[in-house]
Amino acid sequence: MNPFLLSAPALVLFAIMMVVPLVMTFILSFNSFGFYTGIEMTLGLHNYIDVLTDSYFYEIFGRTFAIALATTIICAIIGTPQAYFLTRMRPFWRSVMVLVTLGPLLISVVVRTLGWAILLGNNGVINNALMGLGLTNSPFRMMYTSGGIVVALVHVMVPFMVLAVWAALQRQDPATQSAAESLGAKPWTVFRRVVLPQAMPGVLSGSLIVFSLSASAFATPSLIGGRRVKVVATTVYDEFLNTLNWPLGAAIAVILLVAVLVIMISWNRIVERRFAGVFQ
Amino acid sequence: MAYLELDSLTKAFGHTLAVDHFSLNVERGEFVSLLGPSGCGKTTTLQMIAGFEEPTSGTIHLNGRDLSGVPARERGLGIVFQTYALFPHMTVSENVSFGLEMRSIRRRERKARIARALDLVHLSPFASRYPRQLSGGQRQRVALARALVIEPELLLLDEPLSNLDAKLREEMQLELRRIQQEAGVTTLLVTHDQNEAMALSDRIAVMQAGHLVQEAAPFEAYENPSNVFASTFLGKSNSIECRIENGAIVTTAGVRLDCPAGAAHTGAALAALRPERISFVDPGEAILSGTVTERVFLGDQWLFKIDTPIGELLVTRRNAGRSEPDTGSTVHLAWQAEHLRILATGDAA
User: Fold this and answer.
1) A177 lies in a domain?
2) Is a pLDDT exceeding 90 seen at residue B255?
3) Per-residue pLDDT, B117
4) Residue ranges of chain A whose pLDDT lies below 70
């Protein structure tokens, strides 16, 4: 059968659900908006100029990428050893632990995030415990901070990192570890010099997934960050639903999309060049 | 005390004995092969010597040192893995350098030793290549250089040639032998390939189901297999079921054959006869006659399957450019009685 025919259902779905809204958003971003006239079907770059000349938006974009970067780095630091331990486990415990690892993905984002809110709040579990133990007199502010958003994002993003690294670890020949050991390497040296470099493609592709998902995350930042700590996704939401300035929201969304794309593509190229030896 | 001494080495996985009271001595500088089919315990034995598996019982002594409980990284052995296990993210010279770095050897000496090792395996021009840029044979030699550069007390080779194609395998056999002798390193090879074992080693240890079946020089092992398993695993062999009665062989089909001198065995036995020891003769000199049922051309030789009164016999004949009997034709067979090997039955695989 013709391969195009076989993939037709997926292509149609992709075209309707993905391409059409994207194209419409793209067109919308060139329209203009007036408080009394609503959306006007004009074509111009004024929305982009508005965004790119306003330091308010720079701050939001900067915060968004800082949060995404911090989330990515923490996920890599937590997820890589975790994936390595998974590969070294006995099959039974491995399947149990994979389930535990994937746990955060199995819980609804709202429930999970509100769980963090209970933990992180000024009157939350952590602060009450700290004050109860007499370690601090006034609560640490964790809700409505970038740090709180990073913590909650790491929680849900780590599984993606673990899965990506795990896939890379499974591709590597386990005999290379034995070889390093027989040549006199201690366990930590084996990990650092043999396992990790071979797992790097996984770490880096995991980073791509985590970074792009974190940069465009909406639910977690809006619940943990609230009104106070805005990121790009929540700003777009506000423009669309509060200010009703759809064209401006569309322009911000397009800029986010392009920025993430540029970062991903250049990251990918750096990775491929740097780790050419590992990709067979 | 021998240089490498395996004493009743045993490894149990659950209730199965992968290696069962296996003992073997290897002298300094010797090249010994562990030969056997897959699952015979040869790889497990290697893993125990290497330190990747802990023996259930038994001891390993290397150069007078008891290796029990010594971790793999402190045994100082050179190992060439079946998959070569090269570090894909390191160049050839970085691969070779790894073991030297672990030994904290100074940069200048390291460079000299890497150069010497690469020269030994004829890979000097490839020092800065990555493994994926090399052919199978070259990767194999990198693995060898990496194992030899640390000047190991013992070189372990785990099916090193099984991933190469037939032609390259033959070349590498000669190459491996040269390198081993030049380096003068005591070597233990694990293989299921009898040709490889015979071509490379000073001595062959044939393993079957965790046991040592025979331990001999290749020629001796081929000529005088200790049991049916060894005779069929080392090269091709015709096994003729028979009884020994009054110094003569009586096959189950009732045919009487001359017995080799000095065969002490009596009662049920197997007579083993190598296919290349059977020749085609004139009807008058024949011991047996038979019909060719199959004829296979192998280039340097012909392989015949011949239906005879004592059962099907395999015969190989050197291809000397003459025409050979076709299927269906009748041939007359003869051999010298001393080429028959009388083996006890009951321990057959």
Assistant:
1) yes
2) no
3) 94
4) 276-280
Q: Is B76 in contact with A184 (Cβ distance < 8 A)? A: yes
Contacts of A276 in chain B (CB under 8 A): 130
Pairs of residues, one from chain A and one from chain B, whose beta carbons lie less than 8 Å apart: 76
CA distance A107 to chain B (A): 39
Contact A267, A207 (CB under 8 A): yes
Count: domains in chain A:
1
Q: B248: which residues sit within 8 A by CB, 6+ positions away?
A: B256, B257, B258, B259
Report the top-level CATH class of B236-344.
mainly beta
User: Per the CB < 8 Å rule, is A178 touching B81?
Assistant: yes
| Cβ–Cβ contact B103 with A under 8 A | yes
Compare CB distances from A181 to B72, B78, B90 and report the shortest one's residue. Answer: B72
Averaged pLDDT of chain B:
90
C-beta atoms surrounding A123 within 10 Å? 10
Residues of A with CB under 8 A from a CB of B: 172-173, 175-176, 178-186, 189, 193-194, 197-198, 200, 275-278, 280
Please report the pLDDT score of residue B349 as a whole number. 35
Residues 6+ apart with CB under 8 A from A12: none
Nearest to B85 among A179, A184, A197 (CB): A179
3-state secondary structure of B174: helix
Res B259 pLDDT > 90: no
The answer to the question of residue A269 being in a domain is yes
User: Can you point out the beta strands (E) in chain A?
Assistant: 32-34, 38-40
What residue numbers bound the domain in which A111 lies? 58-274
Among candidates B90, B99, B132 on the partner chain, residue whose Cβ is nearest the Cβ of A280: B132
What ipTM did this prediction achieve? Answer: 0.82
For B:118-137, CB contacts with A below 8 A are: 130, 132
Q: Residue A276's pLDDT is what?
A: 67
Residue of A nearest to B129 (CA): A277
Asked if residue A5 belongs to a domain, the reply is no
Closest residue of chain B to A280, computed from CA coordinates: B132
Tens digits of residue pLDDT in B160-212:
888 888 888 888 888 889 989 988 999 999 999 888 899 899 999 999 999 99
Q: What is the largest CA-CA distance in chain B?
A: 77
Q: What pLDDT, in 10s, does the model give residues B60-84?
A: 999 999 998 899 999 999 999 999 9
pLDDT top residue among B270 and B19: B19
- Are A277 and B90 inside 8 Å of each other by CB? yes
Residue A265: enclosing H or E segment and its boundaries? helix A246-274
pLDDT computed for residue A190 by the predictor: 95
Query: What pLDDT sits at residue B264?
Result: 65
Looking at residue A234, which CATH number applies to its domain?
1.10.3720.10
Span B4-226: which CATH code?
3.40.50.300
Q: Please name which of B20, B26, B11, B19 lies closest in space to residue B61, comparing C-alpha atoms.
A: B26
pLDDT of residue B245: 79
As a dihedral over the C-alpha atoms of residue A11, residue A14, residue A15, residue A19, rounded to 10 degrees, the angle is: -140
